[in-house]
Amino acid sequence: MTRFMTVIATIYALTLSGAIGAQPASSAKTSDGREIFRFDTFGDEQLWTDTLQMHQAIPSVSPATALSVGLKVDVDALPPALVAALQAKQVDLTDPAVTLELLRLNAVVGVIGKVDDQGQLTRVGITCALCHSTVDNSFTAGIGTRLDAWPNRDLNVGAILGLSPALPDALKAEFATWGPGRYDPRHHAFDGSNIIPLNSPTLPVLIPPAYGLQGVGFETYTGDGPISYWNSYVGVSQMGGQGSFSDPRIGLTITQKPDRVTPKLPALLDYQLSLSAPAPPSGSFDVAAARRGGRLFEGKAGCAACHIPPTYTDVSSGADPSVPLLHDATEIGTDPLYAERSATGRSSRIAKYRTSPLRGIWQHPPYFHDGSAATLLDVVNHYDQQFGLNLSAQQKADLIQFLKSL
Q: Is the distance from CB of 217 to CB of 204 less than 8 angstroms?
């Protein structure tokens, strides 16, 4: 009997013994958009299986290894039998057969695997949730209830791609420089058959949150387009979904039929816009200091000139709301290189960035597009120096408390 079948048999025996109850049926009805966000691969198995051959690599990956590179497990997708077995330490998390069982149960957040009756992984693809969801760690680190749209800052995409038996070593070495929580969406594209180089060397940026986007207008660091533009770009050229995308600003056109991405974009948009930024945990900031910081934000510090409430961005406040208002990299004192490769940078030949929305900023350090600010104090110090604000230590502390309250 294979290890996979042994795992199945153990869980089945525990259920029959009465030690563990049957999995209750879910009564919750989810929207089409949520289903797309969580479970739709758009046919990107053509990249992850046919091209990268990840179905050959994953069967040797244990749950412990998967968790170490930031993959998450949805505890609500596990039958009570398995939950109890995990709690009782009856499941060997160093056994790759357990990984296959988790995939069979559709419990690995953002990864969809097809496992046959013999325990063979035959197909694998990814969903939006891989990068833009995490879990609340309510069971243990990396295992818990899904938190849709929270950026997975533990996810080491480069290390995961490094498992592919099909990629050349030089490309794996580039991906290995990304580290946890970072990805370079302007490094390469996939056209349905081939990985196309776009820019080199690689310049990874932080995986951004996908919550709190209602009213923002332009959702990328460089304001390349609204949500559905970016969903299309990523779904087709980065995830490897079967679909069509074209943007002459970056010289990229991909046409695949049938298009399994574009028809899903409206529902996906509706779901994303429904996701509010998470409120700060109770007791996580000093209320009185936050009030003082709010006055500084509006006054001496001048933050509100660009971070305009309630969205805390000015990207749609230009003369034409359909055109993003962006800021020159030299104006805000940030690295221009990534913006130079963006659609807006290439079309204007000027490196510019969007003013980032601030709702939920407490949740996703580090900061700036490249993660160059490890803490909110680093952010405040950067702008204090860039704009000559001459904030005192107390004022900086108050301003940080205000940011933590958003």
A: no
Read off the pLDDT of residues 125-178 as tens digits, 9 standing for 90 and up: 999 999 999 999 999 999 999 999 999 999 999 999 999 999 999 999 999 999
End-to-end CA, the chain: 54
Q: Which residues contact 111 (CB under 8 A, 6 or more apart)?
A: 71, 103, 124, 125, 126, 127, 130
Q: Measuring CA to CA, how many Å separate 150 from each of 109, 138, 212?
A: 12, 15, 10
Residue matched to tokens 């995308």: 245
Per residue in 336-371, pLDDT (tens digit) is 999 999 999 999 999 999 999 999 999 999 999 999
- Asked if 154 and 180 count as a contact pair (C-beta separation under 8 A), the reply is yes
CA diameter of the chain: 71
Q: CA triplet 195, 344, 201: central angle to 5 degrees?
A: 40
Domains of the chain and any CATH numbers: 287-405 (1.10.760.10)
